[in-house]
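Milestone M4 deliverable, item 7.
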Amino acid sequence: MSYTWNLPTKVLFGPGKVKELANEEMPGKKALLVISCGKSVRENGALAAVEKCLTAAGAEYVVFDKIQSNPLEPTIMEGVECARQNGCDFVVGLGGGSVLDSATVISAVAPQVDGRVWDYVQGGTGGGRPLAEKPLPYIEITTSAGTGSEVDCWGVVTNPQSHEKIGFQGGYPELAVVDPELMLSVPPTFTAYQGFDALFHSVEGYLSKFCNEAAEMFELAAIRSIAQYLPRAVRDGSDLEARTKVAFANTMSGYSMEVCSCVSQHAMEHALSGHHQELPHGAGLIMISKAYFGRWIDEHVCDERFIELARALGRADARTPEDFLAALSELMEACGVDDLRMSDYGIEPQEFAQMAVDAKETMGVLFFCDRFEMSDEDVVSIYEKSYR
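Output delivered:
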């Protein structure tokens, strides 16, 4: 058993916790408050609540409201320049995974002397430059339950020219706020997409060859909570108990990625949404999941783990790895995401060969976490079996 435990973020978890932000000591005097380009945090009152807390805590702030889904490098670079020009000495991310990821990257790049975001990307066509200056401190306030980004040191950024979507390692948040009341207005479809993203973080971690007992503790707790409560959250967004349990699962999945790792399913999805920015990350994962895990089951590299996963998903009598696929299908049906189509997002089969290359070149490290060697042909075949 071997792992590194370095989870330094203070977490305020539970309904109403966002109000306690006002009582926290801020890590700086002026914040870049990062939100999405949409309207949700303004309309549901989350932005006003956080602005009030920052003011009460004695901090000034500047709002940067341009982050899109699957955030693009040029947009994140705008945020970096906004932080520099306004003299911001810390960052606050308020939103879903894309916003939290962007806040992570902005906090890392803003204090650097020169260069663009992509100059500091480690992998693909990134410049590979080390961070010479310490990242700005930052706070993450999540309004969705999907990425676990509120407790990890990673952000995901897309290069629109090369279609590379890759992880960017920054610093850890000083503080995270996980308040399920901020998630009550997330629409059913996106509740499902985000919930499955959190689910696959833990499923992949449990299957990774680097899994350990610390990771299993987080992963199995997350999987059980999602199996039991995600359908309820999808059916009734005002179900605060269900929202709280799914939010807990999401944060546990964030911890999983810190003491363990995802496997190549995430790399393969990044290639999909890297080429098609409008594809929600969780939807892409759902689309390829059954063919992907079916390929693993064909190899019989961890049959007992798939049986345990099936049991965690609610099949107490699971006896074969295929029971996991059946349980996964049932959860998709219960959440109304069992009939997603790649073609609805403009994805074409002739793209799969290039996507296989991109998956390995940009997020190739995740393939080393697999329990068997996944060939380019395997990747293309999984895409093809998932296509409709």
